[in-house]
């Protein structure tokens, strides 16, 4: 909806420039929306729409710098898909490199213009305003670019350049904070997944354990009514549940047979070790991962470890991961046991409903079983594959 040209919402006046009242209303409306947005794509689109409406351009684009690839890119350009151009190229690249805004009457008379996209899309770029964005620390983060003034003479005025600078200064802070937030979340996702894989390889658990537990948790989370965002969050943190196993000696972790009482006591510490590894992080994702590492062996009836929590004192994410983990552990070969048949697994979940596991979650588990089995098939381990085919 925000993609619609809303000249109806902010009707233009006869001289094709906004009145101060209109400008204020546009800035006020958009900056309020932008400040509440957490997703980069939405912020960029709102900013593009704000710029376009303020100065009545045909298109408005927010360009960002991709330093890793040495490119400028835009995900929202009115009427076009993502565009990438080499860093420093085009009028926009020049403006970013020099930190100077530019007002061009006809791009085709300017040797700096990069006309490649016009050739590809058939669009005729004429007038351009480009205003660079500078971050809090003074570094370049990108640029605002308005293309083609919607008036018969089709050129922008210096007044409009100033207005776009105003828009850039209002929205720039929100843009930077959303970019930082996205970067932090992406970093956390990478760390979490890498750590989960370390835990998995140390305990020699079969290939896709971490991946399957993540997918099972996601399905169960959706099944109990969590939003897609929250299910996604749990999917990211559940692979970390056994990270504490990194500190358990191989002799215990990979013991082919049943553990002695002392060995099992040592093994149980993986919950607290994982919790302690993660808990001091101030990051939302790592904090959730800490709770899951801590609580995934708690039992609904209070007989689990390490804290002996019961019922809803166990965080929902811990209760969900417990089901995902045991379902996967039982269905997989371990150093100490062979995989169980599905019937036997289902019987255990039935018996442990309201004992080990949250009864409501067992019902959801049963409802979602077809999806869970589909995941199990999709991420089948090589070893168990071999074992199964060897059986025929
Ligand atoms: P894991 O192999 O990932 O198993 C996770 C959980 O799945 C277990 O938590 C348990 O609740 C369930 N589970 C797995 N296999 C069986 C089984 O054969 N029977 C039943 N009833 N439940 C099963 P638990 O018991 O707290 O164990 C935590 C971890 O301790 C296990 O993670 C595994 O790494 C290790 N472990 C437990 N028992 C033994 C053992 O006898 N030998 C060895 N080598 N390791 C063990
Ligand atoms: C483009 O729209 O592809 C870039 C135009 C330019 O800044 O030269
Ligand atoms: C385990 O093997 O993971 C402990 C539970 C059991 O031995 O039945
Ligand atoms: C924990 O005890 O595992 C963390 C505390 C919490 O649930 O937030
Ligand atoms: Fe565990
Ligand atoms: Fe596990």
Could you give the topology of this structure?
Blueprint: H1 20-35, H2 40-55, E1 57-66, E2 71-74, E3 83-86, H3 90-98, E4 102-104, H4 116-121, E5 128-134, E6 140-149, H5 158-202, H6 209-223, H7 228-237, H8 250-253, H9 261-268, H10 270-278, H11 284-295, H12 316-330, H13 342-351, H14 359-367, H15 369-378, H16 382-391
Antiparallel strand pairs: 1-2, 1-6, 2-3, 4-5, 5-6
Helix pairs in contact: 1-2, 1-5, 2-5, 6-7, 6-12, 6-15, 7-11, 10-11, 11-12
Structurally, how many domains make up the residues?
2
Number of strands: 6
Strand order of the largest sheet: 3-2-1-6-5-4
SSE-based structural type: alpha+beta
Please give a structural write-up:
This protein is an alpha+beta fold. The protein has 16 helices and six strands. The longest helix is centred in the middle third of the chain and has 45 residues, at 158-202. The radius of gyration is 28 Å and the shape is elongated. It binds ligand C2E, succinic acid (3 copies) and fe (iii) ion (2 copies). Residues 275, 291, 294-295, 315 line the site of one succinic acid (SIN).
Which properties best describe this structure?
6-stranded antiparallel β-sheet, alpha+beta, Hypothetical protein af1432, Beta-Lactamase, 392 residues, binds ligand C2E, single chain, binds succinic acid, elongated, binds fe (iii) ion, disordered C terminus, 16 helices, 52% helix
